[in-house]
Request: fold
Amino acid sequence: MLDFLGKVDLGTDLVNILGGLGFFVVVVITAYVVAVYVKKMKEKSTSDAPLAEENWDGIGEYKNEVPTGWFAIYLMTIVWAGWYWLVGYPLNAYSQIGEYNDEVKAHNAKFEAKFANADTAMLKSMGESVFLAQCSQCHGQTGDGMNGKAADLSKWGNEEGIMATVKNGAKGLGFPMGEMPAGLVDDATAKKIAVYVLAEVSTAKKSADAAVVAEGKTAFAASCASCHGEDGKGMNGMSADLTAYGTPKFTAETVLVKGKKGHIGNMPSFEKSGLLNKTQFMAVATYINAEMSNPKK
Ligand code: HEC
Ligand code: HEC
Reply:
């Protein structure tokens, strides 16, 4: 019957020991007081104390002193309650939520330390499981966007992605510049600009026909530089940094942190939801770049 005692480590938990002791003291005193009064009542059925004035249907009440034992328990309970709140649980000692938070913190620290210098292969394999767990329900297992339910990641980050952005506009990344309007230039110009951005602006460098790059550069200066800057760096955080566009850095440090409000639908911020940590951001971004959107394609 008492085998639960085997599971509770009474030796280390002061609050439990004192709580248990208090319980036994209360039981012993109560038994003693009851015994004393039962004995008294057996010996004598009236009290020496004066009768109280009020009576109910002829039934009166003696003005007996409060029994010493009960009074002692009453005082002890008050003292114990004060001690329990201020010194013992819950203000000062063990808390289940606290233990959970400490464990999560310790686990996260261990995770960060273990993967602080993770190489690309490690990030890629971690990224694959993160993608399947957190991204594939919208983007599809292959990242194709499941017929327009979410961004087709095979197009994001390369020429097609840039052209689609220019055609549809972009919003949700939360830059001070706000939204990028749709339809800034026609499709043919957008293509040249896309070639230029991938060849010269983005660090995901790709060689391309020099003549097209030069035309794209001129068109970029005319239609895009006003917001993204001549160098495409986004004018000190005012708008998207296109030197990172198409790289894991862009996904990990901008898209997953801010979320995205697209013309198709919305993607939540994974920083706000707290579902993933920074290492996992980089991992899934690396995976997408390696397996889905390849700017060099
Ligand atoms: C009116 C300012 C403005 C102009 C002009 C502009 N952009 Fe943008 N661009 C932005 C902002 C702001 C964002 C971030 C949008 C967001 O919150 O998703 C952005 C984002 C982008 C992105 C990243 C989109 C993504 O999928 O995350 C690309 C690529 C881009 N712009 C290319 C261009 C090109 C190419 C041009 C010229 C044709 C251009 N932009 C002109 C403001 C502008
Ligand atoms: C709730 C559905 C949903 C989930 C979950 C989701 N996404 Fe998205 N994502 C979208 C939608 C919708 C868009 C496209 C918005 C648009 O441009 O129309 C998008 C766009 C993107 C883009 C392109 C961003 C850009 O700048 O244009 C990337 C990269 C991306 N998601 C990566 C991820 C990764 C990585 C995960 C998992 C960690 C993920 N997404 C989870 C819905 C989702």
The CA atoms of residues 232 and 242 lie 5 Å apart. Residues 162, 165-166, 170-173, 175, 177-178, 180-181, 184-185, 193, 197, 223-224, 226-228, 239-240, 242, 245 surround heme C (ligand 1) (CB under 6 Å). The radius of gyration is 36 Å. The mean pLDDT is 86.
